[in-house]
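Side project, low priority. Logging it here so it doesn't get lost.
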Amino acid sequence: MDTSRKRTRSCDSDEIDTSVSVAYIHSNSLLVESSKTPNIGKRAKMVHHLIKAYGLLDFVKVIEPKLATAEQLSQFHSSSYVDYILSLRNESEEDDASNHSSTDESSEDESDCDEETNEEFGIGYDCPPLKNLFQYVSHMAGSTLTAANTLINGEADVVINWCGGWHHAQRDEAEGFCYVNDIVLGIQELRKKFEFVLYIDFDIHHGNGVENAFAFTRKVFTLSIHKYEPGFYPGTGSLDDIGIGNGKYHSLNIPLKTGISDEPYISMFQSISEKVFAAFQPDCIVVQCGADCITGDKLGDFNLTPKALGLCIKHILSWKRPVMVLGGGGYNLVNTAKCWTYLTSVILAREIPSEIPEHKYFTLYGPDFDLEITPSHRKDCNTKDELGRTVIKVTDLMNKLRNETLP
């Protein structure tokens, strides 16, 4: 191979401390369970194999996740929802035992009943029934709980769990492809050691489940940067949603329109996040890196490249706090694998070649076989004046937060 053609991908500002220790949550069973959902299929496997192909696993501490128990799930989710998930596990086991041979005449009535119950708990169109849902949920939640305990135990400065980041699930129901809110469970776990936790959400969809969970507390600050336009899911997360009661000024939403590109996004994030960091002074940070904000995603229409998220991650790491990095959305599987591999290299401060290395899923990256993702010609509907007004509003809100916390 002609190595003279090779280029490298790296961020070009704010150096990262190469002495930072990084852990990486991984197991084969986690990859298998992550592949159960039809909307993302083999995404987790593609991400892991590309990271491995670039040799980045040589620079991380690989940690095998523990499975979450029903009791751990109940730390956030309602007992009725957890019992429902457990009942599906039992049904799955019974189905396996009978080899699907039942011819009970009442099966049609039972099916109608199941449908009603499924609807009650959000199992349906966007969260289709999964065989042995408890096994899936315990893996997703367990991976992020393991990541949280990695930081709590001081095993790493940064921990990566690309299989986590399911931010839409509510206390008592699944929502938006999310069957469990592993992020909420992870933040609750982190708070056993870290009093103040900052949550940052880059997914193109509003992190409604996480915001709802912590809307009333001053101990967790949620910052979500997302598309906010009529008809776009989930339809929440306006600039006026700032928290409730004791949690007032501890939720911050940055609503954007179609087509935001790298330069204004990076500039806005750095300005806003600095104000949030100064006002809230977190002890630990959780970052959801939904790759559906990257150009080319079938469920998103921003015009960002991984470089934008890379610079945002570098900015977060410059604060020198323990950081948990999670996945999330991302429905262009090739672009998501490219994005999260690139972000892994950024976190590790390792330059990697732009040429995709040969590996199990190599052919999916054709015809260019290049790590770089180029922006489209989509119009940016966000004006400079609108973004400027948003920053002014955020400045005012963070000043109010500062005043509230003064002794």
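Brief comment: Residues 35 and 321 are 32 Å apart (CA to CA).
Revisit when time allows.
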